[in-house]
TrEMBL record:
Name of the protein in its database record: Formyltetrahydrofolate deformylase
Single GO BP term: one-carbon metabolic process
Organism: Lentzea waywayandensis
Native organism taxonomy: Bacteria, Bacillati, Actinomycetota, Actinomycetes, Pseudonocardiales
Family to which this protein belongs: Belongs to the PurU family.
A Pfam match: Formyl_trans_N
Length: 280
């Protein structure tokens, strides 16, 4: 039977779960997974329900469910089981792209990679070896506006539901962040303490860090401060030179990013103010 996923958040009150499950039962749906979280601090309920239902389309079900949503002041989305289409953006580092490609080809990414876009040519062989289109879009201070226009065109051309910045070393403009709000995931290194600027792993080595890590988050106009989806931390010690720290950091980046992409594609991530609720 066709599979669907319903996600929602709304003010906490009695009867919400009963209303959702009654609606699904009345429409001949079979619930296969249900998760919810009551945020008592914000007074908000978050819910994700996966179900199967025959002889109905997602738009039709959503139209019917809108009556329930209005009654409980719900903000909801309802998806069918079509894998979201993913546009991956890269620069020169290939570890995150390589990991995403492996998981996609193994059927474990949750989404369908549509194409790879880059401001450099370095990773063209990797993308084309996977049978994907590789689109080179130069991005300099003089061409940034044109590059972002081209990116929007590519999102439409490939019908991309999600853009993944897999170590894409360019900052998106505020206008583009707003246009693609909630549809762009970025990965960046994060240390305790944080190191900014050039050669962060060398800085970490100089400070004798004991952990390296990475953060996957939604992109907002506030650089590297968008809602966090996933973080990965690895313990290191004095024996890790800059090369070993870099290798450990790459592992953390690949793990955090792939999990964030999969959870987003499986509709497990709900925004909660400046944070997220992730139903794993």
């Amino acid at each position: 039977m066709p599979q669907f996923t319903l996600t929602l958040h709304c003010p906490e009150r009695a009867g919400i779960v009963h209303a959702v499950t009654s609606f699904l039962v009345d429409h001949g749906c079979d619930i296969v997974q249900h998760q919810q979280f009551d945020d008592d601090v914000r007074g908000t309920l978050f819910l994700r329900t996966a179900f199967s239902c025959d002889g109905v389309e997602a738009d039709e079900l959503a139209g019917e469910f809108a009556k329930v949503a209005t009654q409980f002041e719900m903000d909801f989305d309802l998806w069918d089981d079509r894998p979201p289409r993913v546009l991956v953006m890269v620069s020169k580092a290939g570890h995150c792209l390589n990991d995403l490609l492996f998981r996609w080809r193994a059927g474990g990414l949750g989404g369908e990679i549509a194409a790879v876009v880059s401001n450099h040519e370095d990773l063209r062989p990797m993308a084309e070896a996977a049978g994907l289109d590789f689109v080179h879009v130069p991005n300099t201070a003089d061409t940034k506006h044109l590059a972002e226009q081209r990116l929007v065109e590519l999102v439409d051309e490939y019908q991309a539901d999600l853009v993944v910045l897999a170590r894409y070393m360019q900052v998106l403009s505020n206008d583009l962040c707003a246009k693609l709000a909630g549809r762009v995931i970025n990965i960046h290194h994060s240390f305790l303490p944080g190191f900014k600027g050039a050669k962060p792993y060398h800085q970490a080595y100089d400070r004798g860090v004991k952990y390296v890590g990475a953060t996957a988050h939604y992109v907002t106009p506030d650089l590297d401060e968008g809602p966090i989806i996933e973080q990965e931390v690895l313990r290191v010690d004095h024996s890790f030179d800059p090369r070993a720290l870099t290798a450990a950091g790459r592992d953390a980046e690949a793990l955090a990013l792939s999990r964030a992409v999969r959870w987003h594609c499986e509709h497990r991530v709900l925004l909660n103010g400046n944070g997220t609720v992730v139903f794993r």
